[in-house]
């Protein structure tokens, strides 16, 4: 089922290398880009410049696993029938203003998506890639177009999400959310599987209506995550009720390719097995600093404490063990995208329930290199939970 779906995506150009690969999460954005050129398939450093159309169709080398085409069709109904979170952008180059008037300039509008959803840096005006992407989108656009208006809805209450039809919800899910979460929410390299007890109606409603960086300068009222919000006219309240009804009874896939490879790796670094942990003194002024994880996804909670010059201990730690390549990251100023890993992939069947785990800094890092830690979903660049240590 999974591979059939992956192959289906080939026509979209979203996932050029994933077809027939059992673990799509191994294919990072670099490989996807390189797959455009058969000679370079295995060389992630030698990136072939992409055309404007490819910059629309494929993930960007300097970003996460999302492409513009993950979230925006050119026109609708889209050729593949999918209903993406963002509105179509075929006429966007000709619009007089963007983001409900908050942004006047086309490049600034695209940059807001690059920075807030794709975890990529903003394009400078003379950036070659910007020029190519702009020219491609301009070639799609008419002479003039009207500004788009859209409405970000507040997160609904549980009561407002009741009464949906699960069959209709499954159908809607498999033509919309499917772009990232996969068929029946089994998960892809763009977003985790969605099933199990941790899902509740309010969480689903909040993610659909108000997902996005809380630090957004473009949108008000977002509640975190790299999943995009769905404006009022992208999913109706009734469709959202249906999706909630579907997800609340959705069983985990029996053969989840995302989970198969990692179950055995996860014990190598943990506290139940102190072998292989180095001894590194307690001289640094940060020893003893601690913090409580804020929960963004997958039930992450607990505490992190610096116990010596190279070791972080997680206590009362909970995590449902799902996602797509999830690791403990350290960083300064919450910049986990520029941070470093302190663990193997943490996903495991059954998850973590109130456990104590220890992780060590890589040899080339010191406590000066972090002031916080995150349970970090690496391919997407999303924090499932993080905390400052103070
Ligand atoms: C993860 C999803 C996501 C990705 C990836 C993404 N966008 Fe967006 N984008 C949105 C959302 C949500 C909006 C808000 C407006 C809407 O609902 O269409 C938006 C708005 C826009 C707008 C402003 C529309 C308007 O007139 O107000 C433009 C232009 C745009 N995106 C272009 C792009 C381009 C080009 C890319 C690729 C470089 C891109 N986006 C990548 C989700 C995304
Ligand atoms: C552009 C990709 C994308 C699309 C489309 C998308 N999601 Fe997500 N979603 C994500 C990512 C990535 C995460 C995990 C990281 C985060 O929380 O931001 C996520 C997380 C979630 C979560 C939270 C899971 C948890 O463990 O807390 C829910 C619920 C969810 N999505 C529901 C939906 C529904 C319902 C739809 C369709 C209406 C949808 N998503 C469409 C990317 C997407």
Please tell me about this protein's structure.
It is a single chain. The protein is an alpha+beta fold and 390 residues long. The strands form 2 sheets. A 5-stranded antiparallel beta sheet has the order 2-9-8-5-6, with no helix packed on it. Among the domains are: 159-259, Cytochrome c-like domain (Cytochrome Bc1 Complex, Chain D, domain 2); 262-388, no CATH class. The chain is built from 11 helices and 9 strands. A hairpin with a 2-residue loop joins β3 and β4. It is globular, with a radius of gyration of 21 Å. Bound molecules: heme C (2 copies). The site of one heme C (HEC) has 32 residues, from α4, α8 and α9.
Please summarize what this structure is.
With 390 residues, the protein is α+β, with helices and mostly antiparallel strands. It is 22% helix and 13% strand.
Keywords:
single chain, 390 residues, alpha+beta, Cytochrome Bc1 Complex, Chain D, domain 2, 5-stranded antiparallel β-sheet, 4-stranded antiparallel β-sheet, 11 helices, 9 strands, 22% helix, disordered N terminus, binds heme C
